[in-house]
Amino acid sequence: MRIYLIRHGETPWNKEKRLQGRTDIPLNEYGLELGKITAEGLKDVKFDAVFSSPLIRAVQTAQCIVGNENIEIVTDDRLTEMNFGESEGDLLPDIYGDENHPANVLLNKPHLYKSTPKGENFEDVIKRTGEFLKEVILPIEKKYNTILITGHGAMIRCLIRNIEPRPIETFWTDSIQKNCSVNIIDLVDGKFNIVEEGKLFYDLPGVNRKGIL
């Protein structure tokens, strides 16, 4: 089975460089455009099943990619973005530049990060995404050929760590997950294999942020 694991398109908070987390922000116009360009890049792929984070930006991205196909988008809370607690909505440049900000360690020294009671640690998200793979994806390996999963940057990095162990120290650098990044994963006889990470269809020749030329 081949899995297409895709981060959502751009939101107003992405554009403003705000820490987003579980705050439910919809796609902006450019984010919808990126979704449509990505759908065009995947037009020859027939999805047998679609799973998404319940947050609207992920669902909208799945809708862009599925288009007019009559296929249910199944949401699962375990695909929700990492909860960054009270820091959600804060500007990333402010977080990076202020050593006293509660999320400064999250971004600069992720291996030392400990969440507030309202948030999540990396281990929490790795655990729940691992449970999703085990309880939802593994049982349908022989049932479907190709599936789509739409989600979020930190969530995707955590899910990948269930397939290929990587240190938390390199959490933000070892897997570049831009808006509408496409990650391709194969599942064969119960074993996951990462085929490609972070592919962008809107960065290909003949495509720009105004659409396909």
Descriptive notes:
It is globular and about 50 Å long. Helix 3 links the parallel strand 2 and strand 3 (73-75). The longest helix has 16 residues, at 122-137. Mean pLDDT is 94; it is low at 209-213. By secondary structure, the chain is an alpha/beta fold. It has a single domain, classed as Phosphoglycerate mutase-like (Rossmann fold, 3-Layer(aba) Sandwich). The protein has a six-stranded mixed beta sheet with strand order 3-2-4-1-5-6, with helices on both faces. It has a two-stranded antiparallel sheet with strand order 7-8. The chain has seven helices and eight strands, in the order βααβαβαααβαββββ.
How are the elements arranged and paired?
Blueprint (H helix, E strand, L loop, with lengths): L1 E6 L4 H5 L12 H13 L7 E4 L3 H11 L6 E3 L16 H6 L6 H5 L13 H16 L8 E6 L1 H11 L18 E7 L2 E9 L7 E2 L2 E2 L1
Parallel strand pairs: 1-4, 2-3, 2-4
Antiparallel strand pairs: 1-5, 5-6, 7-8
Helix pairs in contact: 2-3, 6-7
Strand order of the largest sheet: 3-2-4-1-5-6
Characterize the largest beta sheet: strand count, sense, and whether it forms a barrel: 6 strands, mixed
Flag low-confidence runs: 209-213
Strand content: 15-25%
